[in-house]
Amino acid sequence: MRQQFLFSPTLRDVPQGADIASHQLMLRAGLIRQSAAGVYSYLPLGHKVLRKIESIVREEMDAASGQEVLLPAMQPAEVWQASGRYDNYGPALMRFKDRHQRDFVLGPTHEENIAALVKDEMNTYKRMPAILYQIQTKYRDEARPRFGVLRAREFIMKDAYSFDTSYEAQNESYWAMYRAYERIFTRLGLNYRAVQADAGAMGGQGETHEFTVLSDVGEDTIVYSDESDFAANIEIAAIPDTVSKPEPVAEEMTMVDTPKERTIEEVAAKLGIRHEQCLKTVAFDADGRLVAVLMRGDHDVNEVKVANALGAEVLEPASAGQIEEAFGAEPGFIGPAGLSGDVEVLADYAVRGMAGAVCGANENGRHYQNAVPEKDFPVGEYADLRFIQEGEPSPDGRGTVRFAKGIEVGHVFKLGTKYSEALGATFLDENGKARPIIMGSYGVGVSRTIAAVIEQNHDESGICWPKAAAPFDLHLLVINPKQEDQQQLGEELYDSLQKSGWSVLLDDRRERPGVKFKDADLYGLPVRIASGKKAGEQIVEVKARTAEENVEVAVSDLPQYLEKLWAEIH
């Protein structure tokens, strides 16, 4: 490609609103341009990177016996209504009506759609196992699109679905996809971890893993052991029940005035106690049931764990009106004592170990002291409901917990029969008995993987593409096209390198050398070759993007030098 014709305009300044390196560099290097919040056009360089990543994904999916299909982005609402996700998915699901007033959605994922597709086609055990996949644009109406393509409303994803006749066979499909994902992200040169995760809105039956690229800008927190291979998303990192009941306090529960103190920090300061001596009550609406979740004051409620403990499809903070009606007080003063039986009480394991706790008295401006669980208020159930804290023992009993930030780029799920039962996707087994197909779902965020690659591969000058994702292998610069020897050598190398199988971007623009070198660093191709002052001597300057120095190489030695250099680049 001749750079004078390349439509990937560069920007010298950091665009306003671009807060992280990948977003800044994708805009500055001309990979993308924003059309609307969370919606981007991919320019030629960005599109080439997309295709490179898609090619790796396809190769590994095909190697794992996947078959590529293409499903419609526009899906009839009835398949989502059948699974229950039309209402439960929330406002992120883009809904619309056609001219005949029929309801449709723009697919954020395709579990319902593919289950409806295969129910008439994969109706016998003889047609399974099977894995179908696609690479397609998806849609989610994010409340706060940000970080460029990391949290976009329109994005490109590879989604795959496995279909099996038994849970044993499903397990084989699951781990085949798991290993394919390992190969994909390893080939891209990413520093990643596969961590235990929560199924979230996907639901399903069985284990699930996230593939998370380590990055300080990641929105996910990874919990890992410093002495074992344990790793999990913080949302599901389990905390074992090791808490025993303490000896009861002698004092009776008494009420104290706290007229302005409603937070744990304010109450603890006023009463001269530690945060862990306070008991906080958080009210939730769980599928229409009002639930009071009790938590030690120094711990944070983990809503994923709460939803799982309750078996709730939809868990939301209770409204101010619900709280006032059930507790008779404002948030900050509510507590578990004296509640009616209409409010379920669920407590974290750590609450069992509290004696003489301070909690809300269900009167504005007042708290109780010396409150004891089960003596002064009932607890319906104890469960693991909090976020694990850094430095605690690892859930697997080996070492202590450490935290890292990460970007989710892939997720594998065991769905079981959740969608096949909802959509009536059954098969006849060897005995002629109808049974629901057992499914798995496997996603790779193709467009967000670009951002993850850049977050791990950049410096102050620009992108440093790993060779597997780079839009071109080599950046060939003619330093001064007005010099005939430099121009001639550049053209000769452009032809010979392409014939040798290299993909080459030739900077033949009539620009100052400084502009060319800055753009080359910004584009970040793995190797730069400069035809400059020594072109007449058949000598070029070669520099790997991440190297500090140029190396002068005779043109006759260039093929061998490039092969050796390429083998050393990740």
Compute the number of structural domains: 3
Helix content: 25-40%
Can you name the CATH architecture of the largest domain? Answer: 2-Layer Sandwich
Low-confidence runs of at least 5 consecutive residues: none
* Main CATH class of the largest domain: Alpha Beta
Radius of gyration: 29 Å
Judged by helices, strands and strand pairing, the structural class is: alpha+beta
Number of strands: 31
The CATH topology assignment of the largest domain is BirA Bifunctional Protein, domain 2
Number of helices: 14
CATH homologous superfamily assignment of the largest domain: Bira Bifunctional Protein, Domain 2
Shape: globular
Q: How much of the sequence is in beta strands?
A: 25-35%
Task: Give a quick account of the main beta sheet: strands, pairing sense, barrel closure.
Answer: 9 strands, mixed
Average per-residue pLDDT, rounded, comes to: 94
First-residue to last-residue Cα separation: 23 Å
